[in-house]
């Protein structure tokens, strides 16, 4: 396949599954282990229609497709990232299965219809504006800090998109778990699955994966913890299986 035409500062990276490639930029926020963890935590049913909020360069949507999901849409406020994601989808022959929209998650009603989706995912900005140093790079700042949209905005958007009993999966910081559960319930969703992610088995959790459902009764399953590394530089077998399991 002929390589895509790249803009200055862009590069082509391996997605790690299906021999797919992804266009990213040195000057923008690039996908990380967070996206991989979320894509392989979310419950995937092949016929579901899905939306990824804050889709960036499209990594999560592509990883979901590698797990058997047939089609997905992505929404991101950064036009450059949306353009990269669109070109990656085209280059990998996925344009008929992936659609990317440039827009504000707070204006979700402008881009999608209510209750049309069975699945929503999000890797939202983790930190409050007053928490830590904000990157001078706008794309990175928006990805890490709630400078333009916050947790409640993503949760409200997911609730709008989901059909009854539809699922919303997200990755966030354990320290904000109370905020997450509160926001979900205020939006009519119940946390149903939860998993803490640790860098090593003997270290505190650094991330938490949460899957909620809309319009269902309370009842939460806490899954066994996941350690990313067995030892320095050695991934846990479950993490490795995500890549080896790609079709």
Describe this structure in words.
- It is a single chain.
- The protein has 247 residues and is α/β, with parallel strands linked by helices.
- The protein is globular, with a radius of gyration of 17 Å.
- Strands 3, 4, 5, 6, 7, 8, 9, 10 and 11 form a nine-stranded mixed sheet that branches.
- The chain has helices at 33-41, 59-66, 79-91, 138-144, 151-161, 177-186, 237-244; strands spanning 10-14, 21-25, 49-53, 71-76, 98-102, 117-122, 162-172, 189-198, 207-214, 221-222, 226-227, 229-231, 234-235.
- The two termini are 19 Å apart.
- Helix content is 27%, strand content 28%.
- It has one domain (10-187): Rossmann fold, CATH 3.40.50.150.
Looking at the structure, what is the overall shape? globular
Which strand-content bin applies to the residues?
25-35%
Q: How would you sum up the major sheet?
A: 9 strands, mixed
Number of domains: 1
Provide the CATH top-level class. Alpha Beta
The CATH superfamily is identified as: Vaccinia Virus protein VP39
Order of helices and strands: EEHEHEHEEHHEHEEEEEEH
Task: Give the structural class.
Answer: alpha/beta
Number-wise, the strands total 13
| Rg on CA atoms, Å | 17 Å
What is the CA-CA span between the terminal residues? 19 Å
**Global mean pLDDT:** 91
In the predicted model, the low-confidence regions spanning at least 5 consecutive residues are none
Q: How many helical elements?
A: 7
Share of helix among residues?
25-40%
CATH architecture classification: 3-Layer(aba) Sandwich
CATH topology name, in short, is Rossmann fold
């Amino acid at each position: 396949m002929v390589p895509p035409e790249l803009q200055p500062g862009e590069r082509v990276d391996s997605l790690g599954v299906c021999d797919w490639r992804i266009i990213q930029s040195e000057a923008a926020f690039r996908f990380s282990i967070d996206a991989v963890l979320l894509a392989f935590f979310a419950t995937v049913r092949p016929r579901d229609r899905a939306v990824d909020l804050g889709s960036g360069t499209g990594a999560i949507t592509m990883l979901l497709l590698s797990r058997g999901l047939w089609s997905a849409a992505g929404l991101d406020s950064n036009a450059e990232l949306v353009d990269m994601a669109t070109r990656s989808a085209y280059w990998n022959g996925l344009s008929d299965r992936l659609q990317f929209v440039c827009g504000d998650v707070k204006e979700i009603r402008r881009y999608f219809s209510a209750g049309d989706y069975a699945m929503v995912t999000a890797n939202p900005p983790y930190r409050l504006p007053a928490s830590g140093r904000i990157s001078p790079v706008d794309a990175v700042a928006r990805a890490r800090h709630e400078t333009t949209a916050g947790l409640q905005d993503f949760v409200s958007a997911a609730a709008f998109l989901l059909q009854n009993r539809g699922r919303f999966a997200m990755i966030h910081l354990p320290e904000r778990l109370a905020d997450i559960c509160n926001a979900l319930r205020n939006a009519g969703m119940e946390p149903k699955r939860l998993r803490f992610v640790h860098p090593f088995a003997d270290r505190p959790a650094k991330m938490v994966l949460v899957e909620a459902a809309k319009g269902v009764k309370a009842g939460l399953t806490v899954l066994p913890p996941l350690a990313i590394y067995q030892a320095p530089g050695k991934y846990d077998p479950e993490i490795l299986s995500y890549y080896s399991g790609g079709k």
